[in-house]
């Protein structure tokens, strides 16, 4: 592989492959998908706990915090990938760009790094966005669960009184001289 000497004669094929950069971008995208799926995953995990379920407010806060951390991690991973792409255009490795290094491709990479306000404001705007996203998902999942319970109660056969009642032969009916809260003493 030949070494790139001048930015004007160096082509993309002469550069080393950016396997790390691709892996970082894929990792950032996976974190974004996980961020989107976090409310559903937390809801399903909580539902699988049975009687040890977490109550609504702590589950909501926990899900929001997990989502916020995932969002910030994806932003940092994407930022790392964009910076790695930018510094592939830095031929002398001093992390600054001279006139000979400022090609059109380097300029586009520099614009991708510097012109993303959403990535820069993610720590401030990510928290409310995450909690709004969690609230919308929990409202939808709660309504689906309530509707499902209602449908099951309407479609299931009604319970009869005979199933739950006690037969009269086994029932204790105290007379006026006995305490109704204590069974009679055995003779």
Give the helix/strand layout.
Blueprint: H1 19-47, H2 56-87, H3 104-114, H4 117-120, H5 122-155, H6 161-164
In a nutshell, what does this entry contain?
The chain contains 6 helices and no strands. The protein is mostly helical and 187 residues long. It has one domain (12-149).
Description:
The protein is mostly helical and 187 residues long. The chain contains 6 helices and no strands. Helix 1 (19-47) packs parallel to helix 5 (122-155). The longest helix is centred in the last third of the chain and has 34 residues, at 122-155.
Continuous helix count: 6
Q: Kindly state the mean pLDDT as a whole number?
A: 78
Bin the strand percentage: under 5%
User: Termini, distance in Å?
Assistant: 104 Å
Radius of gyration: 32 Å
String of helices and strands: HHHHHH
How many β strands by DSSP?
0
- Point out poorly predicted stretches: 1-17
Shape: rod-shaped
Helix percentage range? 55-70%
The tally of domains stands at: 1
Structural class: mainly alpha
Q: Could you give a short account of the major beta sheet? A: none
Question: Which tags fit this structure?
Answer:
single chain, 187 residues, mainly alpha, disordered N terminus
